[in-house]
Specification:
This protein is of the alpha+beta class. The chain has 4 helices and 11 strands; from the N terminus they run αββββαβββββββαα.
C-alpha cells in the first residue's frame, strides 16, 4: 500500500501545481507563468499592452515592433495642463502629445491640444495628473487606472467606492515615486 499512498500524494501535488500555475498570469509572448508583479511591452502596430516575463521583456527592450514599458515612477512639480478635469494622462504617440481621461467606458481622448511640459518617451511613458499632483509613469499604470475606474464606478458621479480606490491608487504612486 505505500506505493498507492505515495502515488496519490504525487497526483495531489501535481494537481496543486497545475491549479497554482493556472491561477498565475502568463507571459503573452511565450506562455510562461509569471508573478503578479511583472513587466509589460507595447506592441506598436496594434497599441496592445502585453504581459511579459523577464526574458521576453529584456528581449524586447530595444526591439522595433515592441517597446518595453518602463517601471519608474517620477514625481513632477508645477504641472498645470489647463484641462477642466481632476484626472488626466498625456502620452506622446508618434511625436504628438495626446490627453486622455479615465472614464467608466474606458479612456476618453481630449480634443484639446496639450503640452505635457515634461520629457516623455514616445508611446510608453505618460504624464499622469490628479488634482495638481503629477507623475511620469509607464502607460501600463494608466491602463490600470482606467481599469480601476471601469470596475468601481457607480452611478453618475462614481460613488464612494471609486473615490476610495483612487485615493489608494494615487497614494501607492506617491510611495513608489522617486
Amino acid at each position: 500500500m505505500p506505493g498507492a499512498a505515495s502515488s496519490g500524494l504525487m497526483r495531489l501535488a501535481r494537481r496543486a501545481t497545475v491549479e497554482r500555475e493556472a491561477a498565475l498570469e502568463h507571459c503573452e509572448l511565450c506562455g510562461t507563468p509569471i508573478a503578479a508583479e511583472h513587466r509589460h511591452v507595447l506592441e506598436l502596430a496594434t497599441r496592445d499592452v502585453k504581459c511579459a516575463c523577464r526574458p521576453c521583456g529584456l528581449l524586447f527592450e530595444r526591439a522595433d515592433r515592441m517597446k518595453l514599458i518602463p517601471t519608474d515612477v517620477r514625481r513632477v512639480a508645477g504641472v498645470d495642463l489647463g484641462l477642466p478635469v481632476e484626472i488626466v494622462f498625456c502620452v506622446r504617440a508618434d511625436g504628438t502629445p495626446k490627453a486622455f481621461y479615465p472614464s467608466p467606458v474606458g479612456p476618453t481622448e481630449s480634443l484639446l491640444a496639450v503640452d505635457p511640459g515634461v520629457e516623455l518617451a514616445d508611446d510608453v511613458e505618460a504624464l499622469l495628473v490628479n488634482r495638481g499632483r503629477a507623475w511620469v509613469v509607464g502607460i501600463d499604470v494608466c491602463f490600470a487606472l482606467v481599469g480601476l475606474v471601469r470596475t468601481h464606478w457607480r452611478g453618475l458621479t462614481g460613488g464612494a467606492d471609486v473615490r476610495r480606490e483612487l485615493d489608494h491608487f494615487f497614494d501607492k504612486l506617491d510611495r513608489k515615486a522617486r
